Amino acid sequence: MKKEGRTLPVRREGEICYEIRLEQDFEKLAEGAAELGTEGRKICIVTDTHVGPLYLEAVRERLSGVCSRVTVYTIEAGEDYKTLDTVRGLYEHLILEHFDRRDLLAALGGGVIGDLTGFAAATYLRGISFIQIPTTLLSQVDSSIGGKTGVDFDSYKNMVGAFHMPRLVYMNLSVLQTLPERQFASGMAEILKHGLIKNADYFQWLLDHRQDILERKPEALMQMIEESCKIKRDVVEKDPTEQGERALLNFGHTIGHAVEKLKNFQMYHGECVAAGCAAAAYLSWKRGLIDESELDRICGAFQSFSLPVKVGRIDPAKVLETTRSDKKMEAGRIKFVLLQRTGCAFVDRTVTEAEMLDAIKWITEE
Predict the structure, then answer these.
(1) Of the candidates 278, 260, 272, 280, the residue with the CA atom closest to the CA atom of residue 334
(2) From 147's CA, which of 138, 170, 317, 334 has a CA 20 to 30 Å away?
(3) Residue 134: which of 121, 116, 151 has the closest Cα?
């Protein structure tokens, strides 16, 4: 018997602005798109060279029945192509295909595709609608929700971007069954982060159900992804443009993004976030906010899902220097996220460079 999907509404100023739909296939994608008023409109599916061969035809077939025409724009897979030059190529495609403000984009892929497509939608003709169809665990629980879009600039991650909400987020959870182990683990970093910053019971649930999650049992994945989406949804609803509480979602990212850049994106985003979370937990311990046993428990949780808490040989001074270019800087100071305890995070603007360097050295030591 087929399991029922879940629908999570996302509100802004009390009104539903889009829905997150969790399903086990693409069967209801056409229904979801049609509810947006796609009849007579064109849709451009943006995908990459890894995802396209797997899911493009299934998605194109369903969307073709609810719009006037479907076009496809495929980019090379990888963070290296999340650039303004790639967006320029997409703009040219949309112009040549005569896309106007009533037409839509559909982002079929992971976080790179979702961020890039969303940015193109935010800026083409000063803004057109788009749909998120995330195909990685990381994009399903993180980047597809909340309207943050952007591209990298000279390898500085997401330095150029805009807030632009999708009209629909449609998740086919069955695609996770074929996701490579390392990419699945990368997504788990953001999921563990959600528990650490907002829900201690959920963090413990993840540890208690670790085996079912690693075996990718559909019931466990549905429950896990739904809870993570709820956590991110609730934070985004309260702070859609990151003026306050949404900054909590950056737990582990200040140092994590710097490591990601200095490793030339050879480490996955989630792997860098895991190490960044370990560094932030270490700093929380050094300040006496959590005890050493909790620090060990947090690091052990990441390691139990095949995520690193150490990043190997890398110059701590260079990591610190790179954090100064982080987009989370405010009046020359980093908005650093620490733990008051598991399930309760807060933004601290008093973290010194000496403290950060100490935490960086801790995750870079052999």
Answers:
(1) 280
(2) 334
(3) 116
Provide the total of helices (H) and of strands (E) in the chain, helices listed first. 14, 13
pLDDT tens sequence across 219-264: 999 999 999 999 999 999 998 877 788 999 999 999 999 999 999 8
Q: 278 near 270, Cβ under 8 Å?
A: no
Angle at 110 between CA 42 and CA 269, to 5 degrees: 150
* 194 catalytic residue (yes or no): no
Strand bridging mode 42-48 / 329-330: unpaired
Residue 348, helix vs strand vs coil: strand
Predicted local distance difference test score (pLDDT) of residue 2: 54
**Are the CB atoms for 140 and 111 separated by under 8 Å?**
no
Closest Cα partner for 19 from 131, 186, 96, 104?
131
Rg (CA), the chain: 20
Phi, psi of 290 (to 5 degrees): -125, 160
Measured CA to CA, the distance from residue 48 to residue 125 in angstroms comes to: 23
Residue 232 bears catalytic tag: yes
Tell me the C-alpha distance between 161 and 278, whole Å.
28
Active site annotation includes 264:
no
Alpha helices (H) in 143-208, listed in sequence order? 181-198, 200-208
Q: Give the chain's end-to-end CA distance (angstroms, integer).
A: 50
Exactly one of 41, 42, 198, 257 is catalytic; which is it?
Answer: 257
| Residue 199 annotated among the catalytic residues of the structure | no
Instruction: Compute the C-alpha angle 141/143/146, nearest 5°.
Output: 95
Global confidence as pTM: 0.93
Kindly name the residue from 23, 79, 190, 227 that is annotated as catalytic.
190
Verify whether residue 361 is a known catalytic residue: no
190 is catalytic: yes
- Please give the Cα distance from 82 to 115 (Å, whole number): 8
Residue 14's identity, in one-letter code, is: G
